[in-house]
Specification:
The complex is a heterotrimer of chains A (361), B (153) and C (412). With 361 residues, chain A is mainly alpha-helical. Chain A is 69% helix and 3% strand. Classes of the chains: A mainly alpha (361), B alpha+beta (153), C mainly alpha (412).
């Protein structure tokens, strides 16, 4: 058996140079310390992304992206296709789970200052990936073409219209017209199955390459303790030890997904009708709630700026700071923990949590 | 691989094989429980498409001239009529008055609603009784030995 | 080619040429006058008689070629605007002459005049009452439009307003001791509402009262009138005990419970012993009718409740993503049973109503079963989940043991 493996690897090595990859993997290690648990979240997000791609491809076999047929084909998948309900529900739940794990992954990288030199580009590609994942969520939510999704999309794209200068153009570009129509649906479908996957693949390739090349970041606190001799540096081989643990996490995630799909199936709702008035309490999906709620609190006029624009400007500035944090918190590159940025991160977390909670009330 | 860990009660080799068995069977069974639904999913269901737009209403020869048949179209009843001249016509089977199910009356050569005596002609027009609007008309096509009814728009 | 073109132009301009040639002095003179005297000339363009090629002289006589006032002399056969009492005969001169009318519109009836003399309006007019309606009061004068023209005062959607000119005027009606609220009552009826949406198959004033031969239907014939459209109800009523009972009391069928003008959509609480019940108008607690009403109301309520219950279960299944379209089609049969049961109320026999409500409840129970089965199938998925979770737990424990095994002699 081992001989056969050796023969296959040799064959691949002669053509791909796979031997060096195998060598690399065999020697890859993961730092093992009390914050190592956060290392799992990147792989978990990647795993859930793979689940999304696979279930998404299966859904593609039956789904039709037009206003006439989107709801009917989703209904068909749910009711007529064997295990269609399972694929559809897993896809819906895994989307939410993936956004959650990506969120945790990003914030853990922030708090553990994994963005510091030399991992600035890993951070930047990561934040961009997060934005793309939110885009996946937003575009995918519309696809079943039910009432809730229709109005949530209308509200969401309306916000895009408030961006100054390019707002109107942006709104028309997103909607494929002035209003949310079947054109919007087809366009979102294009984004969801072609544009976003393409962009994510590119960014993910860069992100993963950087992670492999630069290895896992050790938090500055742990580094200092090791330097001061208070702790010994421990490493776990990636293959098979860390990988087995990764796989355990992925299995647990599959179990959770299956349980959610069977116990809390996603309701299809009613088919979208552009001519009925919006039902009360329309709001976007949970991951956009904090933005939605914040915009509600912004006064009509903020200084000399129009309220909604001021709100969006605030978000844009926050996003700019967030993505530029490796350069702003350059001191972290020298191993120094600047409390200000930790505080900023805590504030962001609390803000998001509070705003989301208020929106749900 | 030799282990001097006193924690394992059994000898190394049987313990290891047992663990490999649990791991192997667990992984294989769980993967099978993922692949099985995926494979059944890929195989097209008996009804290939949603029937809300188009459905096989009858087989050719099933309906005699001057007769009608109620069939299911989506989640509503519909009516297939074969006129005295042999032509197929299809309409919504839901009366426009109070949504009773209409039927074809061979004696009257018209479509009749039993609830309040409403009558529609063979173009679906409401000609007598309470119905306020005509019956929605569907397209009928004969394909091979199937009579297929399609909703427009 | 040129000559053909010229002759076409000539033919097309013929009417205007002949008009210019015949010079209708009536129009040319009256259009220069003021107010009432100018009106006929101005209005006549839209009149259907004008479009049929008739002119002032065809009704009023006189000589349209004579430019002077002599055009209106009796020597030229001039008939001035007729007095009210002479009006029907004035119009009837042509309109009851079949041979003459055939030249213009062969399918027009010619019995309007004879019908009119049988009507209340006609009879009173003969006695000299000039306040009643005659031809021009409903059809207009000098700008008479075809009945099928939606602007005509006698087009179905306009009839009630036309009748209301007199019949909704309390002062006018006082003299005849007729109420003046009929049109207002009619407007609140379901017939008026449906008519306003363009469905002209529903009755307006003339449908039940007649138009030229207008007479309110008598107490013994009202049910016949309603029964021309509401066939089943009239048939059942005639066979029911109420028919003889009402006839002996001089009460009209249908109208007694449903009103004549204010015919509104009935509801189930008209049946039985509740507040809105029409049964208790006559029936008292304990008598046969009272008990029958109660039974019928209870059965209808039972069927309504069953239908709502099934609808709830099916909606719940649909929202969970279960396929229940066949059940939905069958649920339509329950609705149909309820509608037919309401028709059968007019037999006033609880057994007849119960036959249908029992049928409906039976179907609803079957459909309910289908809905529950769909929900159970949804729950069955949890069992399938349990099985796959078992495998996953197996794999997880296998992984855990493997990790422990490969790490026990080493330091991670």
């Amino acid at each position: 058996m081992a001989d056969l493996r050796r023969r296959i690897l040799n064959w691949l090595d002669e053509r791909f140079g796979a031997g060096s990859v195998e060598e690399f993997l065999r020697h890859k290690t993961v730092p093992w310390h009390r914050h190592s648990i956060w290392y799992y979240f990147g792989g978990m997000t990647l795993f859930l992304f793979v689940v999304q791609v696979l279930t998404g491809i299966l859904l593609l076999l039956f789904y039709r992206p037009t206003a006439n047929e989107a709801f009917e084909s989703s209904h068909f998948i749910m009711t007529q296709v064997r295990f269609g309900w399972l694929i559809h529900c897993v896809h819906s739940w895994s989307a939410n789970l993936m956004i959650l794990t990506a969120f945790v992954h990003m914030f853990s990288a922030y708090f553990l200052k994994a963005y510091r030199k030399p991992r600035e580009l890993t951070w930047i590609t990561g934040v961009l990936l997060f934005v793309l994942v939110l885009g996946f969520g937003f575009s995918g939510y519309l696809l079943p073409w039910n009432t809730l999704a229709f109005f949530a999309t209308r509200v969401g794209t309306e916000m895009a219209g408030s961006v100054p200068l390019i707002g109107k153009w942006l709104l028309v570009f997103l909607r494929g017209g002035e209003e949310v129509t079947g054109a919007t649906l087809t366009r979102f479908f294009g984004f969801h199955v072609a544009v976003l996957p393409g962009l994510v693949t590119l960014l993910l390739a860069v992100h993963l390459f950087l992670v492999q090349r630069l290895g896992m970041s050790v938090p500055p606190g742990v580094e200092r303790r090791i330097a001061e001799g208070k702790e010994t540096a421990r490493f776990m081989p990636f293959f098979p030890n860390f990988l087995l643990r990764d796989i355990m996490g992925w299995y647990a995630a599959l179990g959770v997904l299956g349980a959610l799909a069977a116990l809390f199936p996603w309701e299809l709702g009613t088919k979208a009708d552009p001519f009925v008035p919006a039902p009360a309490g329309i709001r976007p999906e949970w991951y956009f709630l904090f933005m939605f709620q914040t915009l509600k609190y912004v006064p009509a006029k903020f200084l000399f700026l129009e309220g909604e624009f001021a709100g969006l400007l605030g978000f844009a500035l926050a996003a700019a700071v967030w993505i530029a944090v490796p350069f702003l918190d350059y001191k972290a590159g020298f191993g120094r923990v600047t409390r200000f940025f930790t505080g900023l991160g805590v504030f962001a977390l609390v803000f998001i949590a509070v705003m989301s909670a208020l929106a749900l009330r | 691989m030799v282990t001097t860990d006193p924690a394992t009660k059994e000898g190394p080799k049987p313990g290891r094989r047992w663990i490999n068995l649990v791991l192997g069977s667990g992984v294989v069974a769980s993967i099978a429980s993922f692949i099985y639904p995926a494979i059944r999913y890929i195989i097209p269901p008996a009804v290939a498409e949603s029937t809300s737009h188009s459905v096989v209403a009858a087989k050719v020869g099933e309906l005699k001239n001057n007769s009608g048949k109620i069939f299911k179209f989506g989640s509503r009843p519909a009516l297939l009529v074969r006129t005295a001249d042999g032509e197929y016509r299809a309409f919504s089977g839901v009366c426009t008055h109070l949504s009773c199910t209409v039927q074809y009356r061979a004696d009257l050569r018209q479509i009749w609603c039993a609830c309040h005596n409403g009558l529609y002609d063979l173009a679906g027009r409401n000609v007598s009784g309470p119905p306020p609007r005509p019956l929605e008309r569907f397209a009928v096509n004969v394909q091979g030995e199937h009579v297929i009814v399609t909703r427009n728009g | 080619m040129k000559s053909a073109l010229a002759s076409i132009v000539l033919v097309l301009s013929a009417p205007s040429l002949t008009a210019a040639a015949t010079k209708d002095s009536c129009v040319s003179c009256h259009s220069t006058l003021d107010g009432k005297l100018a009106a006929p000339a101005k209005l006549f363009d839209s009149d259907i008689h004008h479009q049929a090629g008739l002119s002032c002289a065809d009704c009023h006589g006189g000589d349209p070629t004579d430019e002077s006032v002599d055009a209106m002399s009796t020597a030229h056969g001039f008939r001035s605007a007729p007095k009210k009492t002479q009006l029907p005969d004035f119009c009837g001169r042509c309109h009851s002459d079949g041979t003459y009318m055939r030249r213009f519109n062969p399918k027009l009836r010619t019995d309007q005049l004879s019908q009119y003399w049988t009507s209340v309006h006609g009879k009173r007019l003969k006695q000299g009452d000039v306040k009643v309606a005659a031809c021009v009061d409903c059809h207009g004068v000098h700008n008479i439009l075809a009945v099928a023209d939606t602007r005509a005062p006698v087009y179905p959607t306009n009839v009630a307003s036309t009748c209301a000119q007199c019949h909704a005027d309390a002062h006018t009606m006082e003299g005849y001791k007729i109420p003046s609220d009929q049109v207002a009552r009619y407007r609140s009826s379901v017939h008026a509402q449906v008519l306003a949406q363009g469905d002209t198959s529903v009755p307006t004033c003339s449908t039940c009262h007649g138009n030229h031969g207008a007479v309110p239907p008598g107490v013994d014939s009202v049910a016949n009138v309603c029964g021309t459209c509401h066939v089943f109800f009239a048939q059942l009523f005639d066979k029911s005990p109420h028919h003889a009972a009402f006839a002996s009391m001089g009460l009209p069928g249908c109208v007694q419970c449903h009103s004549n003008h204010e015919v509104v959509r009935p509801s189930d609480d008209w049946v039985g012993i509740g507040e809105k019940s029409v049964c208790v108008t006559c029936h008292v607690p304990g008598d046969k009718g009272y008990v029958a009403g109660q039974k019928m109301a209870d059965d209808l309520a039972k069927l309504r409740a069953a239908s709502a219950r099934v609808d709830g279960v099916l909606s719940s299944a649909e929202r969970s993503g279960m396929e229940v379209s066949s059940a939905r089609v069958e649920l339509a049969d329950v609705n149909e049973a309820l509608i037919k049961a309401r028709v059968n109320v007019h037999t006033f026999d609880p057994e007849e109503v119960r036959k249908l409500t029992d049928q409906g409840v039976e179907i609803s129970q079957k459909v309910y079963g289908a809905g529950v089965a769909a929900l159970r199938e949804r729950d069955l998925r949890r069992k399938g989940l349990g099985l796959s979770l078992l495998f996953i737990v197996f794999a997880l424990s296998g992984l855990y043991l493997k990790i422990r095994e490969i790490e026990s002699p080493k330091n991670p």
